[in-house]
Design a protein that fits this description.
Blueprint (H helix, E strand, L loop, with lengths): L6 H16 L23 E3 L5 E5 L6 E3 L12 E3 L4 E3 L14 E3 L21 E3 L6 E2 L13 E3 L4 E4 L13 E3 L4 E4 L13 E3 L4 E2 L15 E3 L21 E3 L21 E3 L6 E2 L13 E3 L4 E5 L12 E3 L4 E3 L4 H8 L3 E3 L11 H12 L23 E3 L5 E5 L6 E3 L12 E3 L4 E3 L14 E3 L6 E2 L13 E3 L4 E4 L13 E3 L4 E2 L15 E3 L6 E2 L13 E3 L4 E4 L13 E3 L4 E4 L13 E3 L4 E5 L12 E3 L4 E3 L4 H8 L3 E3 L4
Parallel strand pairs: 2-4, 3-5, 4-6, 6-7, 7-9, 8-10, 9-11, 10-12, 11-13, 12-14, 13-15, 15-16, 16-17, 17-19, 18-20, 19-21, 20-22, 21-23, 25-27, 26-28, 27-29, 29-31, 30-32, 31-33, 32-34, 33-35, 35-37, 36-38, 37-39, 38-40, 39-41, 40-42, 41-43, 42-44, 43-45
Antiparallel strand pairs: 1-2, 24-25
Length: about 650
């Protein structure tokens, strides 16, 4: 007859029963023997020690759905907890920090939410922690720097915020760290350069800023480092040339500048290097011809210049080489061209004679070279000796100076060159719907005759240049549908002639500048689909000519200002999908020309004011997914029935 189970084993059983009940056990893929009288070691996914205590719980990909119960913290002898690839929700149990024997914790690919528990810093034996592909939020706990046994930590693909903790520089056994695809901010900690066992570090697709720490050149065992898709600035550290074991380095799509370090020619183990879409300038160092193992080299989308050094022909393992959208070029000599033809995938141009003529022609040639002119849809007569107004898309005045440049939807790829700022007679610059990347050149702020500027539908990045606030004749500015970031410049409040401004579909942040209330000629303003915050400025009530205003899809807060009822020319007002709150001002009824009003998905409350019946031109009214409701009195309901499209509920 089997001996009675110990009290501790009974606690283990109770914890497993709590897990079964909390995570829809009857619908697990396999729940063999669960809740039965069989020994716990016979329950599916459970392994026990000789004394009957639960030591391993492996229920990965088993259709668990629900919240992890606090009782899991009672499995005092647990060494492995593996619940990946399920449908778990709710917060991470703080009580798991009591499992002082736990070595492996894997909750990968669930729908867990909430913060990372600082209490887990007590897991003194933890070696592996996988929490990627969840919906976790909040900061990285600095206390986790005490997890001295930790070797593998994966927190990728969550919504984590805040800075990288300097305390994590104490994780002396850490071999792999993945924090990619989160919302982390701040600088790269210099102290992490002391992680002597670190081999793989992924920090891609966050919002990290600051410079690349020279101290990271001390990561002697580092093999892979990914920093792509952040907001990192500064120069490439020469000290990283000491990373003798580095095999893969990706710092693409940042804002790095300066020169390519000669010292990086000592990265003897390097197989893949991506520096694309930055602002690195100057020549390619001849020392890079020593990277004998490299197979993949991407330098595209930078401000690099000059002929490629002949020593590159030593790179006999190279399979992919991209230097397009730069001003690098391949020498035309037969030896270099033969080497180039032996590479499976090459993107870049051969060297051509430099054109040195009048400023306008030189600037246009710079645009052609920087944006892959040979592959434009139409580049008729470009780089020829024909007059500039015979070049496709160019219009000139009687003196032969370029006054308009229209190359929209023409397959331009690459960075906008600073030389465009030399086209001082330009009144129209339309380069929308292409594949332009990089930042907006501040030099365009020198085009004082510019009336219309269109760059919508590209992949432009970086901030809005404050220098453009000097474009005193500008009437139309369209930068919609790009990847622009940063605040709205207060200096743009000086664009006194601006009539149309479109910045929709970017990643702009910060508040709405009160100074833009000075744009007295503005008729159309589209800021939809960004990350703008803060209140609606009362000063914008001075935009008396404004006809269309779209602020939908941001994070704007606060009430709708009564002063906006002075916008008497307004026909379109879109405020949907924000966090506006409070009551709807009765004075809105004075906007008699309003045709479309969208207030949906906000925190507005109370009945719609009766004064809205004064909006006799209204064709569309949306107040669904708010606390607003339509009064049931006969006059209001009769007015409501006269509107062609209404979405919202009655009170």
């Amino acid at each position: 007859m089997e001996a009675p189970a110990s009290e501790a084993v009974q606690r283990d059983r109770a914890a497993l029963v709590a897990l079964y009940q909390a995570t829809d056990g009857p619908n697990w893929k396999d729940h063999t023997n669960w809740l039965s009288d069989a020994p716990l070691g016979d329950w599916y996914g459970v392994t026990t020690a000789a004394d009957g205590h639960v030591s391993i719980l492996y229920l990965a990909d088993n259709n668990l759905a629900g919240v992890l119960p606090a009782q899991l913290g009672q499995l005092a002898h647990l060494t492995v907890l593996h619940l990946a690839n399920n449908s778990l929700t709710g917060a991470l149990p703080v009580g798991l920090g009591q499992l002082n024997r736990l070595a492996v914790l894997d909750l990968f690919d669930n729908s867990l939410t909430g913060a990372l528990p600082a209490e887990w810093a007590r897991l003194a034996r933890l070696r592996v922690l996988f929490l990627s592909h969840n919906n976790l939020q909040g900061p990285l706990p600095g206390q986790w720097g005490h997890l001295s046994k930790l070797e593998l930590l994966d927190l990728a693909d969550n919504d984590l915020t805040g800075a990288l903790p300097a305390e994590w520089g104490q994780l002396g056994n850490l071999m792999e760290l993945d924090l990619s695809n989160n919302c982390l901010t701040g600088w790269l900690p210099a102290g992490w350069g002391g992680l002597g066992q670190l081999e793989r570090l992924w920090l891609a697709e966050n919002r990290l800023t600051g410079q690349l720490p020279a101290e990271w050149g001390g990561l002697s065992k580092l093999k892979r480092l990914s920093l792509t898709g952040n907001c990192l600035r500064g120069v490439l550290p020469a000290a990283w040339g000491r990373l003798s074991n580095l095999e893969r380095l990706d710092v693409a799509s940042n804002r790095l500048r300066g020169l390519l370090p000669t010292a990086w020619g000592r990265l003897a183990a390097l197989v893949k290097l991506s520096l694309s879409d930055n602002d690195v300038a100057g020549p390619l160092p001849a020392s890079w011809g020593n990277l004998r193992k490299i197979k993949w080299l991407d330098l595209a989308g930078n401000r690099l210049t000059g002929a490629l050094p002949p020593r590159l022909t030593r790179l006999t393992e190279l399979e992919e080489f991209y230097f397009d959208h730069t001003q690098l070029c391949a020498p035309r000599d037969s030896a270099f061209q033969a080497w180039l033809q032996g590479i499976a995938d090459v993107r870049g141009a051969n060297c051509v004679p430099v054109v040195r003529e009048q400023p306008d022609k030189a600037a246009l040639v710079a645009l052609y070279s920087a944006t892959d002119g040979t592959h434009w849809t139409n580049h008729a007569n470009w780089l020829s000796d024909a007059p500039l107004d015979h070049w496709y898309g160019v219009t000139t005045d009687t003196d032969g100076r370029a006054t308009a440049l229209r190359l929209a939807d023409n397959n331009l790829r690459g960075l906008l060159p600073a030389e465009l700022g030399q086209l001082e007679h330009l009144t129209v610059l339309h380069l929308g719907d292409n594949h332009l990347t990089g930042e907006l050149p501040a030099e365009l702020g020198k085009l004082f005759n510019l009336v219309s500027l269109g760059l919508a539908g590209n992949r432009l990045q970086g901030p809005l240049p404050v220098e453009w606030g000097r474009l005193n004749r500008l009437e139309e500015l369209d930068l919609g549908n790009n990847h622009l970031r940063g605040p709205l410049p207060v200096e743009w409040g000086e664009l006194k002639h601006l009539i149309k401004l479109s910045l929709w579909g970017n990643r702009l942040t910060g508040s709405l500048p009160v100074e833009w209330g000075q744009l007295r000629r503005l008729e159309e303003l589209d800021l939809a689909g960004n990350h703008l915050q803060g209140p609606l400025p009362v000063e914008w009530g001075h935009l008396r000519r404004l006809k269309e205003l779209d602020l939908a899809g941001n994070h704007l807060r606060g009430p709708l200002p009564v002063e906006w009822c002075q916008l008497v020319q307004l026909t379109v007002l879109f405020l949907a999908n924000n966090r506006l709150e409070g009551l709807l001002p009765a004075e809105l009824g004075c906007l008699s020309k309003l045709e479309w009003l969208d207030l949906s998905a906000n925190c507005l409350a109370e009945p719609l004011p009766p004064s809205l019946t004064g909006l006799v031109a209204l064709e569309g009214l949306y107040f669904d997914n708010t606390g607003l409701c339509a009064p049931r009195d006969r006059a209001f309901q009769e007015w409501l029935r006269g509107i062609e499209d209404v979405r919202g509920a009655n009170c």
